[in-house]
Amino acid sequence: MANGVRFKLLIIIFFSLKLLLNAGKINEKYYIKVPKLSQPPVIDGLLNDECWKEAFKIEKFTQFEPKENSPPTEKTIAYIGYDKKNLYVAFQCFDSEPDKIRASLSKRDHISLDDFVGFVLDTFNAKKRAFQFVVNPLGIQEDSIVTEEPLKEDLSWDTYFISKGRINKDGYTVEIAIPFKSIRFPNTSVQRWGIHIFRRIRRKSERIHWIPLTRDITGYLIQAGTLEIDGEIERGRNLEIMPVATGLKRMGENFDSDFGLNFKYGITSNLTADFSYNPDFSHIEADLPQVDINLRYALYYPEKRPFFYEAKDIFETLIPIVYTRRIIDPLWGAKLTGKIGKTTIGYINAYDENPTESLWEISGVESRKKDNALFNILRLKRDLYSESYIGFILTDKEIGQNIGSLSRYNRVFGLDGQFKFKKYYYFTFQALYSKTKFKNKTTSLVPALALWFKHSSRKIFFDVSWFSIHPDFEASSGFIIRNNVKEFDIRLAYKYYPQKKFLIFLRPMIHYRRWYDFKNILTDEAKIFSIYMRGSKETILSIKYSDYMERWAGINFHKNYFYLSASSQPFKWLSGSYNFLIGDGIYYDPKNPYLGFRINHYIKTEIRPSSILRISYYFKNSKFFKKKGGEKVYDINTIRQKITLQISRTLSFRFITDYHSYYKKLFNSFLISWEYRPGTTFYLGFDDTQEKEMDVFVRKKRTFFVKFSYWWRF
User: Fold this and answer.
1) In the predicted model, what is the mean pLDDT of residues 390-404?
2) Where does the pLDDT of residue 189 fall: very low under 50, low under 70, confident under 90, or very high at 90 and above?
3) Which of 89, 65, 92 is CA-nearest to residue 79?
4) Is 255 helix (H, G, I), strand (E, B) or coil?
5) Cα separations in angstroms, 186 against 118, 132, 236, 271
6) Which of 616, 586, 610, 613 is nearest to 598 (CA)?
7) pTM of the model
8) What is the pLDDT of residues 29-74, one digit of tens each?
9) pLDDT higher than 90, residue 224
10) Looking at residue 7, what is its pLDDT?
11) How far apart are CA 52 and CA 38, in angstroms?
12) Beta carbons of 109 and 155 less than 8 angstroms apart
């Protein structure tokens, strides 16, 4: 069987390579040769420095949404210059209704509901991965990593840069300085980077770009212009040290203090080594409450720990064999990320003092266990042309009482790749093998295979995929919810762009799914029809109907359900979303499963009474009945209220209240945050957990904590 998989994979790779085309040509029409400024501007949000007259000036922008290739409704001017230490960018954003500009004083990376300006720097010009910098009219920052296929933004990446913004009678102005030490770029005398420059006007659902984006070209980074810097700039090789001091006082226990050290060294301008001893991986932001009753699969919790989520996109593959929240309580962590030539490198080493073997146990550290685990994760990706690559990945988890007795293990390795050809077509694959020794059971070398073919053009989306995961395949460093499956999926959608005020985009889709186990027994079959619509006021409506067969405990259950999702930002001070699901559902009792009826409601809203205050509410109700109109099995409410008061750009207060009706638990969390810049922070707060007994809430846990870290960069 393994030989057959290898043979098929080699054939697929061979024919895909023959079809490869180099689509990553430089857009010569949009070329910026950045002038060197005679003196640096003062970053104060005022464009009154004489040096901006020396900068490269951009006045022509084009609308992408709601009306593609149309003039913007508001005028925008951008300026770009540099000196040895920084890249400088400024924006003058005119607005005919300045009182309607959406801007809030908020924490970093929390400006998605605001107006903003920004730019993307593809410093390696590889059309795959780029740095993005976004600033709102008050100068609040957002930085992220943008990856091309699939196109997404990773807000977990943080770096140091300076920005200021001011609202005035004509609109607003923004000034930005990006230290060259804060980004990675090639070690060449002349820098040529891909660049996008853009502005977002939220109340009009308007996106404007310097380069006229077109849906006739599949891809975002591939449409970038070119920025050239021909002069000496400060290299990104640097040393960073960040000590962390923490203190914890649990109810009934003495105050416990601890100390950790984070070390970062730029081996080259594009290759960085990180080491953390006794790291503080505590969660400053609590996980959103989820309903964990009557589940077939484990819940997914996003990674929030800076050491792991920085550059996490490097480790993402079709089959998710890296999920760093399975590294629960590490004594140390080491990481190497970056690029050498056309090869991207990622390596993680961590020693976990509280590991688990089950995916269901990852959500928190409940108690100290006798076992320890050593994790090693290696990722390599080699660029092939502008939008294609070939990759290798290895994960190794060794478990035992100590370093000298790591007797149980899980090891996974394999190849993957992506190829773009014929302008609109992508082929992606991944082939893996795992070997496991857990719970006195040792498997042979067993395979997993994923194949994905996609076509995406202006009007048509089509994809077909195949996943095959052996019954004994295990990825204990990842998040694989199901093995013993052979899955076939096919989707077809039509994309329509009315570009009207109330309807910008419409996409109906049909989806067919068919799953078998390795005994060739049909376990799942789904026929799904959905409609996705996007309109003005950032309004999105999604409707889905599914006819589904699911096999559980040897029984074929036929179920139908209807799903609706709607979100909007109708006013400057109000945004919200609503999800609704109704239909059949399985009660997953291994001994006595049955087909019941479920109704789910999910409501989320955010209110901004002023630019410094945010109040958000989250409510989810899950009901399950033995049959439609029959006896109620459970009725669960999960509720969250979150109040954030942003006193200044650096100082904020946050209060969270969570309630879970099934467990009758009430959770309160208060946090004072002072965040001077990434890495230099001070947190003080408490968490309080109460349980309802005889209609009275009784305190079960209370924890006070303090954390201080300081970031030195040399």
Assistant:
1) 91
2) confident
3) 89
4) coil
5) 23, 17, 10, 10
6) 586
7) 0.83
8) 799 999 999 999 999 999 999 999 999 999 999 999 999 999 999 9
9) yes
10) 46
11) 10
12) yes
The predicted-structure confidence for 538-588, as pLDDT tens digits, reads as follows 899 999 999 999 999 999 999 999 999 999 999 989 999 999 999 999 999
pLDDT score of 490 more than 80: yes
Rg (C-alpha) for the chain, rounded Å, is 26
Cis omega (within 30 of 0) for bond into 66: yes
Q: Model confidence over 113-131: pLDDT tens digits?
A: 999 999 999 998 888 889 9
Q: What share of residues in the chain are helix, strand, coil (percent, to 5)? A: 5, 55, 35
Instruction: Please check whether residue 190 is in contact with residue 228, taking contact to mean a CB–CB distance below 8 angstroms.
Output: yes
Q: CB-based contacts of 534: which residues, under 8 Å, 6+ apart?
A: 205, 503, 504, 505, 506, 540, 541
Rounded CA gap, 141 and 444, in Å?
A: 50
Cα 527 from chain centre: 29
The residue whose two tokens read 């303090």 is: 706
Structure tokens of 422? 């014929």
In terms of Cα–Cα distance, which of 449, 452, 448 is closest to 427?
Answer: 452
CB atoms within 10 A of CB 224: 26
Following DSSP, what letter does each residue of 619-682 receive, concatenated?
A: EEEEEEESSTTS-EEEEEEEEEEEEEEE-SSSEEEEEEEEEETTTTEEEEEEEEEEEEETTEEE
Sequence-distant (6+) residues with CB within 8 A of 525 are: 513, 514, 515, 548, 549
Copy the structure tokens of residue 206: 């308007």
**Which two tokens mark 397?**
């988890």
User: DSSP code of 549?
Assistant: E
User: Average pLDDT for residues 512-519, to the nearest whole number?
Assistant: 96
The amino acid that residue 699 corresponds to is: R
